Amino acid sequence: MEPLGDDELLCIFNSISYWGDKRSFAEVSKQFMKVAFHSIFWLSSSFPSLLFDILPSSPNVTYFDCYKPLSNTHLKLLAQSCPKLETLRLGKYHDLPSEPGEFDFDFDDDGLCAVANACSHLREVSLHSRLHVGDAGIVSLATSCKNLTWLDLEGCIRVTDESLKAIGESRIRNLNLGGCYLVTDLGLEYLANGDLKNHLSELNLTGCDKISDHGIIYLSKMVGLIELNISWLINITDISLLAIGTKCLKLQTVYLTGCEAITSEGLRAFNGHQTLKTLLLFSCYNFCWEDVESVAVTCSRLEYLGLMKRIKTPMPESHQDFLQIGHHTCLIEWDEGEGVFFW
């Protein structure tokens, strides 16, 4: 009996409806696996060594994720094999197990550039904590992938203002730069002066401690911002809040944890804000409960406040966990500690 060819196997595979049976089919042999992966659109891998067999057989993949170390060879193979890729999630998150030194030989700009140049349909990319990625790779990604709308660079410590210059000309809607501590005010100027300002809705700058009021003022040009995280920007003052509170009128969520220089004057910039729902002020102490209340009661949609118990004068015990604003209740979370900062 002649062995079954790929076409016959593909017909059999396509007739299988239950996903578990499809997976069992792929485990029969390398030929069966090759046929099975030719039909998949979604690929998640915890075993990079298998990618050399899987990727060449997966031309229709539009989603790929892997949180394990990957070499430039892996990424170049991904670029060559999966030109239809739209979502690339390579984030190395801290709640996932890894061995000491496991990522010392991770991919760098060379591999990322290969993907950016070959996979022009990319819409969402996460490079969270991939420490060897720098400006060359990010610039290539921002300039080659015109459909990019979601970019997570948190913990990419080699990223500088040069990357933001290219990102500023993109149409990204969600940008995470948390922990990119080389980013400065100049980088925010690049973001605010490019086409990005017309599209960006969510921005995370947590821990980018070289940023000052001068940089945050540029964000006032981003009138479409819905969520802004500027926690632990230790150099910003009330000047920053006056800029964003009066100009970014679509803001719904603002994270100000660790911005210790903020006072009641800065808080009052949000007086009467019509869209604000969440305001986090953990590790901020230079205002009284009366200051918070006077602002909160004018924000008709406010739903959540995060505060320290050691502000100048705390909230009366009788209203410990909520504040009544018109016909709805704003929940309050109180932190008793110092506010711990970690990645």
UniProtKB/TrEMBL annotation:
SMART domains: LRR_CC (SM00367). Pfam families: DUF7885. One of its GO terms (cellular component) is cytoplasm. Gene3D superfamilies: Ribonuclease Inhibitor (3.80.10.10). Signal peptide: none annotated. Residues 114-294 form the F-box/LRR-repeat protein 15-like leucin rich repeat domain. This is Leucine-rich repeat domain superfamily. It comes from Helianthus annuus (Common sunflower).
